[in-house]
Amino acid sequence: PEVQLGLLPGGGGTQRLPRLIGLAPAVRLLLTGRQVDAREALALGLVDAVVDRERLLDTAIEHALGMRGLYRRPGRPLVPPRTASPFNRRGLMHLLLARNPLGRQLFFARVHRQTVDKTRGNYPAPERILEVVRKGLEQGRAVGFAAESRAFGELVVSPQSRQLVRIFFATRELAKESGVDDPQAQPREVGTVGVLGAGLMGAGIAYLCAARAGTPVIVRERDQKSLDDGIGRFRALVDARVNRGRLTREKAAGIVARVTGALDFEALQSAGLVIEAVFEDLDLKRELLAQVESVGRDELIFASNTSSIPIARIAEGSQRPGNVIGMHYFSPADRMPLLEVVVTQQTAPAVTATCVAYGRRQGKTVIVVRDGPGFYTSRILAPYLNEAAWLLTEGLTIEAIDRALVGFGFPVGPLTLLDDVGIDVGYKVSRVLGEAFGERMQPPAGLQRLIEEGSLGRKTGRGFYLHERAAHRRVNESVYALVGTTPMKTPEEIPIAERCVLQMVNEAARCLETGIVRSARDGDLGAVFGLGFPPFLGGPLRYADSVGAAWLLGRLEHFAVLHGERYRPAESLRELAAQGRSFYADSTRRPGE
């Protein structure tokens, strides 16, 4: 869909669609690029009939012969009778909006306001779509076609579209790769999948395995209540899609039938892949690995969903370390598009290829990263979140910090994200990274006081915000005293977004230079699809190239003088700045670049 590439539909799409299905539904499709199935297309009026494949040609001939009856009078646009009638809802909306100047004005004003609120002005295509649709309705099709053509030409060379197109082609290129360099390494047949732990993450992973990959799943929990609760979470994910019309009841029943529960490890004897999704405790993960290896086949793959513990540490003492790997899903697992496959020096290439292939069966964009504390995504996210917390201790308000990063292009602010993930979880990950990388990864001590006070985020009803109702929240004013600050500085005094984003970019550069990620492309896709880095900027390393290594180096050195070690520039940035090069300069030219 063109809008997802920073473009608008060419070939007259912005002019024909509103006349075909009505202004409001047409604008919804044009602005979102959402795909619709045959049933919805029929209901919208996008198609005139849905027929069995065997009757398609005969029906098309019959329809072609009867086309003349669809015209109201010569010269009038083709409109299906059900749309043209003022006595049904579609026809009434057409009269109130497309053909009523006042209704049209109110409609465009409301949609424009909603669009700007959503895009923050970072994506020009939606606003241009509204502009050319309106011109066509108010000034005629000829003017609309000309405006569409002109707008398309301007958008196709815009920096936003160029980055979005690059992401599109990079994703397609990545999907063709096996994730390993050895051409002899072939994916194994997975068969049954075991999932250890049925919390929110485990239930989401079970759904992916059963619904998307279509494999039998055995969910293992420590006691019956935990198992029942976990199966309930899994079924709730299925039911939600039935209620939204995404799944038929027949397909839903098939998905549910693929998942069984167990309390013992012997139930996993037939599994080809076991994914652990328990909480971040090294000893527990090692214990689970030992239990699984004691009952599993020699070729059984054990994958950990840990977000920060090195896989090599989990594999210490393993009978078959070549079969141990990381499969890091992002919460919520059933919706987030990225899967980070983490390999150690001992992980067998066939194991990596198997997990990459299986992740794609689950509908994921899969990147392969090297093992290490935090891997790639958690490692570049931690300093970004830490910096938001440091800004809080300097006197910035919670709202100002979140507003600045949303304005930059992130889907949510960093403090909102910490509330969603869990302040205790984020703090623990930062402490693990601090032990590995020293002072530059240490979070402010004030976060510990929040944890001690029980302000852990959404799960406890309070964190940086008070989560009193699902659709409403307000700032938790007690946070300021707990972290030892008084909000006083205005956002204009401190470059909030710049400071947070530079931390992420700097750490991404370090990960690339040390081989944690295989390429700048993988690093950018991981940040965009896993962390919500603004797609219109292309990812942290594309962003670095766009502003220039010399500028980045200068800003990092400036902040290092003010704030110390955590702003020390990556060596690769120094080298690129000295040589006048960029991260993508020496890469093989890829489609869309």
How would a textbook summarize the main sheet?
8 strands, mixed
Question: Percent of residues in helical segments?
Answer: 40-55%
- The class by helix and strand makeup works out as alpha/beta
- C-alpha Rg (nearest Å): 27 Å
Distance between the termini: 19 Å
Strand tally is: 10
Work out the helix count.
Answer: 27
What characteristic shape results from the CA principal axes? Answer: globular
Low-confidence stretches: 70-81, 588-593
- Neighbour order of strands in the largest sheet: 3-2-1-4-5-6-7-8
The proportion of strand residues reads 5-15%
Estimate the mean pLDDT confidence. Answer: 91
Question: Would you write up a description of this structure?
Answer:
- 53% of the residues lie in helices and 8% in strands.
- It is α/β, with parallel strands linked by helices.
- α1 packs across α2 (23-32), α23 (496-513) crosses α25 and α26 crosses α27 (571-579).
- The longest helix has 20 residues, at 224-243.
- The model is unreliable at 70-81 and 588-593 (pLDDT under 50).
Topology:
Blueprint: H1 13-21, H2 23-32, H3 38-44, H4 56-65, H5 81-84, H6 89-98, H7 101-119, H8 124-139, H9 141-156, H10 159-175, E1 192-196, H11 200-212, E2 217-220, H12 224-243, H13 249-257, E3 259-262, E4 271-276, H14 282-295, E5 301-304, H15 311-315, E6 324-329, E7 338-343, H16 349-361, E8 365-370, H17 377-393, H18 398-408, H19 414-421, H20 423-437, H21 446-452, E9 465-469, E10 472-475, H22 478-482, H23 496-513, H24 520-531, H25 540-547, H26 549-563, H27 571-579
Parallel strand pairs: 1-2, 1-4, 2-3, 4-5, 5-6, 7-8
Antiparallel strand pairs: 6-7, 9-10
Helix pairs in contact: 1-2, 7-8, 8-9, 10-24, 11-12, 12-13, 17-20, 17-23, 18-23, 23-25, 26-27
